[in-house]
Amino acid sequence: MGTAAVENVRLVLAAAVARGLSPGMLLAEAELEPHALLAPEGRVPAWSALRLWHVAAERCADPAFGIAAAEHIQAGSYGALGYAMHSSATLGEGLRRLVTFFRLVNQRATLALLEEGDLVRVRFLTEENIPPDMVRHPVECVLFAVLRFTRKLTGATVWPLSVSFQHAAPAELSAHSRAFGDALAFSQPHSELVLSRRVLALPQRGADPSMAEFMERHLRRLLQELPPEETFLVRVRGVLLEELRRGEPSLEALSERLRLSKRTLQRRLKQEGTSLQQLLDEVRRELALRHLSDSKESIAEVAFLLGFSEVSAFHRAFKRWTGSTPGEYRQALP
Description:
It is built from 16 helices and seven strands. The protein is α+β, with helices and mostly antiparallel strands.
């Protein structure tokens, strides 16, 4: 499911603790272990990090929790990435490094820098199965942090030409207006800051090209060491395996687990050249062969483990897969 930098967890906790919340309680609700915070460049499951954002914002009852959290980001936050940005020669170099290495922050999100004529768009992108309201706080945090970064490192008072968010507007907008100005729009196709392209050429006050290059080399090594991301089909198969323990997996149960509509799930599977029934068949066949070969379980027990309500249905399916019955297959094993 992808990972996120442990600094995401530290950032959320710092903002929540400043509001009087217990870090232990928040970590427990997000299913995160305290020892996960110890490694300097450690990583945690991306979904747990996102859940922590949601839990903390809900407990603080703050519709602008992401904006408040951005205030806790310091020069050394996010380790080598933070130092590489701060030592870049120009704002444009710093932003390009942030975009290039943003996967180190979170493997399930992308930051894009789109240069269009006199404009530049800093756009936050997430996977299509994640509802916009679920990521509202990290999105607002990242975009406000980018804006603070432009001001702090250049000394220039940079205001966006416009700011848009995919998520819906909160009831109270005063914190958003203070952070981004009044050119705000919600429920839009993209979450992005729009800046004048001229700001990319602004020199940074802490420029150190040698340090920036050194940090970039380190960041490239870290990028190569990231755990491989699961493909969509691997994720679906993983959920299928878990759902089989409860019986026959349904389209409704899978779409809910994957946070996709039933229609979207079917469309994505079709794009991959398969279907839910075909994947289920493949998973069951692999499991059946493995259980019959490597375990002492009875054929009835194997049928139950594969989600079949009747042993006869398992027999028919196995004969279709292999041309023999489960009993004949097991007897023929060396």
